[in-house]
Design goal:
By secondary structure, the protein is mostly helical. The chain contains 20 helices and no strands. It has a domain at 62-218. 62% of the residues lie in helices and 0% in strands. The longest helix has 21 residues, at 177-197. The two termini are 36 Å apart.
Length: 372
């Protein structure tokens, strides 16, 4: 995502006009793609076939909240990988698929697992040597477990992440032709691996999410992306990350139109009874929140009481995460809900730069929320 942010300071009074201002000024648009592209029949057929025979059930509710946070969990998995304890990785991945475990704030453990196996680190830009070392380790894992889907999915995700490293996070018109070439080559490699693993007996919900990333990166048409989403939620109804990826695809700076996100979130509310509906509603909109034009446009489409309800339900069932606290603090402030903003800010352990864009923005919002 392009990290352009507003350089103008906002006082308390102008905070309430922030939404209008954001809709007419600087952008934090995700990089635009070249346009929708049709997919060969073999790809769509693999998508239809992948979940065939899979028993899809909603995850059963549990009274025990998760006790592991996302970033430390992924860091732990990365440590196991670089110790080359592949047997332990296979065991953890299988356990995650069977138990459908969650992390604090609701993220599925399986995505935390693959975040730990498919990039050298969580923050900053790692040197290419780190990426090459990771690739070599993944290839060792695959050689040790040639029949396992898990190292292949890790390798496919590696190539998706590695593609973005080559392309960069700037807007499309800032990307050189050589960068596009490498970006497309690495995405093609990821798709090839996904097709190779599609016939494996070992099924993983992350397979569909990776295919959604390919759909966005390569510009599938909306009908095919929607069919992919429908097949995904039929496979694993409770895996809310599918909703987030579909919402990304529907952003106007990608392949959607104004109002698509709102319609998609409203559909989730109708489809899923409470408390799941409001939690999905929060996750759909919160994943787009940032102090930028596109983030504010997305937030302007949302029904704030439903966002607040979703945030409360997530905290109730999955615990309070730093990321969700940052997101809701922003939502509450923009919607002039000072008591809720104040409460959310007290739960923020660390500012999330992807949301606030700068420490100055964060502090101004927090000062407003804490003022008598």
């Amino acid at each position: 995502m392009s990290q352009q942010h507003f350089r103008k300071s906002f006082g308390i009074a102008s905070l309430f006009g922030l939404l209008v201002l954001a809709l007419s000024t600087s952008s934090c648009a995700q990089s635009e793609a070249s346009g929708p592209a049709a997919q060969p029949d073999v790809v769509m057929q693999s998508i239809r076939d992948y979940g065939r025979g899979h028993q899809s059930l909603l995850s059963s509710a549990t009274s025990a909240k998760p006790d592991q946070a996302d970033i430390p969990y992924s860091a732990h998995i990365r440590g196991v990988l670089f110790k080359e304890d592949f047997a332990q990785l296979e065991k953890i991945a299988k356990q995650n698929r069977v138990e459908k475990g969650r992390l604090i704030g609701g993220a599925w453990k399986i995505i935390g697992f693959y975040n730990g196996t498919s990039a050298p680190g969580d923050e900053g830009v790692s040197p290419d040597s780190d990426w090459q070392n990771l690739l070599a380790t993944l290839q060792k894992w695959l050689a040790a477990y040639p029949d396992s889907a898990t190292p292949r999915l890790s390798l496919a995700y590696f190539y998706v992440n590695y593609a973005w490293r080559a392309r960069g996070i700037g807007l499309a018109d800032t990307v050189e032709d050589t960068q596009w070439t490498v970006f497309n080559e690495r995405n093609a490699r990821a798709k090839s691996i996904l097709l190779e693993v599609a016939s494996s007996k070992e099924k993983d919900p992350f397979w569909y999410q990776l295919m959604q990333l390919i759909a966005r990166n390569k510009g599938w048409d909306k009908a095919q992306a929607r069919e992919l989403f429908d097949q995904a939620i039929a496979f694993e109804p409770g895996y809310y990350h599918y909703y987030i990826e579909q919402a990304h695809f529907l952003l106007p700076q990608w392949y959607g139109e104004p109002g698509d996100i709102q319609a998609f979130a409203d559909e989730a509310l109708r489809r899923d009874p409470e408390p799941d509906g409001s939690m999905l509603y929060f996750w759909i909109f919160s994943s787009e929140v940032c102090y930028c034009q596109e983030g504010m446009k997305a937030l302007a489409q949302a029904t704030y009481p439903k966002l607040r309800q979703g945030y409360a339900n997530i905290n109730k069932f999955y615990g309070l995460s730093n990321l969700n606290a940052n997101r809701f603090a922003f939502m509450a402030a923009v919607n002039r809900d000072k008591p809720s903003a104040h409460e959310a800010f007290t739960s923020v352990v660390k500012m999330d730069e992807n949301i606030w864009q700068s420490e100055q923005n964060f502090e101004q919002f927090r000062m407003w929320a804490n003022a008598p």
